Every structure is written in structure tokens, then in C-alpha cells.
Amino acid sequence: MASLTQIAVTTRKSFRWGLYGFISIILVRAALLSTISVYKRLNPPPPPPPTVGFNLLPTINFPEVTSELPPLEYKIETPTGTFPEFPETMPVYLMPKASISISSADSAITKAQAFGFGSIPLKLSDTLYKFLHPTIPSSMEINIVTETFSTSYNLAADPTPIKTTLPTPDVATSKAKSFLSKGNSLPEDVEDGTVTHEFLKVEGQNLVSAISLSEADLIKVNLFREPINLGDEKNPLNYLSLPPNPDTANIWAIVSGSQDVIASQYHYYPIEKSKIETYPIKTAQQAYDDLIAGKGYISNLGLNRDGKVTIREITLAYFDPNIQSQFYQPIFVFRGDRDFWAYVPAVTSEYYEE
User: Membrane-spanning residues where (predicted)?
Assistant: First the structure.
């Protein structure tokens, strides 16, 4: 019969070996989970196949290049010296098409009145109306179908707006947004987007860039659409929304020293983010080959009149069109020395209409 001492020793040994076993299980489990995690990082599951539910896409509506370009020679000098890698697929979004209705003209009149213009339009075409301001030399042109518009001011007839001290850029931004809000023309994805400023001065009949606020007569406020975020709150993955000219937003306003908006442009087309399909995209090398072949859009030549361009950065973005388009599509962006910018459609060529 075992003594109490023997029972105690046996119990302690059993407890010790049980503890060792428990710790071993924990360590083995941790090692196994770590190994699985490393394996998943090194061998991620293949991405889901593209849905291509919009079928063939229309080519992107890049603007016509109005100035003659020199023959271009490109050289790649990215930070790594190689082409960056990108996802195999990217989303394409539907852009709802505006259509004319029996209330289109009335809606345009209501919008013009909200901005302080008269209620009797001059009909420039079936879809383009012009409104005059009742007290100042200002006018507004609005497309009654898309509700895109522009406003202008005749400074030659009344230079009063440029005879007072300009506000700070932040105040000018606030004034621009307040102005657009009058006509319900400040979409949420623009209100939360990037804002840039340009100082302008009057030279003869033209507005030209000024070096600083102290030299400027006016401030131009550019309101860009916010980036497309394909990540989440913890891991955002933002792709810029870029207009035809990367320095000029599709929505802008020029603010005077009297803190009034004397000119503006609103070329905004909504995105239906719930209607989305994915499409295969090119590699950076393929996009670069298209750029060399002249299949891209030179959005800003910069100071490269000699035609020799050094590319420093290649990224993905979305093209924000300044005319009505069917889809919001991804593009490759090539940025180079001396403010060079170029865009190339990102979706592989076989998914574009002929």
C-alpha cells in the first residue's frame, strides 16, 4: 500500500508533466499558427477572376491635345529602378447618364436664380442656356441636361473686385464651397476631396499666375474629387481621382478681395459606386509600352519641350472626366521631371471597344 509521501511525490510528478505537456501544446500551436501565417503571406490565394459585367468598355474620353508635342523619348528612373507591381484587377464604376426631361429647363432656371442670376435665359442651343446677373457684369452658362455650368465676370467693365485685399487661401476655400452650396453643387465626394490654390493676377485681358498672395489679384480654388478607397478604415488603399489637367480640378472657383466668387466651373458627373465590375489591368511594363507607342494622353508636358522625359513615378489612379462618360475607369499615371504627367488606360486592351 503506497504511503502518503509516495502519493504526494507521484501527484507532483503528474502535475509537472501535465504542465509541461500543456506548455508544449501552446508552443506547438503558436508555431503552427505562425507557420500558417507566413505561408499565407508568401502564398496568398489567387484573386477572384474579373467579373467584366459591363462587357466591352468604351475608350476613355481623354481631351484632344491642342498644342503640338515634340517627339518624346522616355527613360525610366523609379526609386527601385524597376517597374512597380500592381493588382491584377481593378474596379470599374458606372457613371449614370443624364437625360433631358420636361423639367430640365425649369431646374436650370432655379439653379441660376440660386446663384443670383436672372430668371429669363438666353437660349444658346437646345441644351445650353445663358443667364445674366441683374446688377453686375456677370453671366452664367448652364447645360440643362447635365447641369454642368460656368460663371464669368467682366473685369474690364467693373474692376472693383480686384481693388481690395485678398482673403487667405483657407477663407477663399470656405467662400468657394459656400458659393457652390447655394446651387446644391457641392457633392460629398468633392467637399471631402483635396483642395489646391493658385494665385492669379490681371495682365491686360488675361489672368496669369502670380508668385505669392501679396502679388495676386485673385485666388483660384480647385476642388478635386476624393480618392477611390479600395481598402478599409484600418488599411486604406487610396487611388487618386485625376482630371484631364492634374493641376486644375473639374470644379473650381475664383475668389476676389471682396470675398465674392467672380468666376467658376462645375463639370461634375456622379459615380454609381453600387454598380461595379472588375476588369483585368495591364502590368506597368505594358502600360509603359503603350505610352511609348503613343497610346497614352500627355496631361502635362511640363518644361520638357526638348522631348526628353525621365519618368520617376508610376502609379494607378482613376480618370475623372470633364465630359459625360459611361464609366469611371482606372489609369496608369506616369510622372516625370519638370512636371511631366501622362495617363494610360489601365484595363487590358481586349476589353475595349474597337
Answer: 17-39
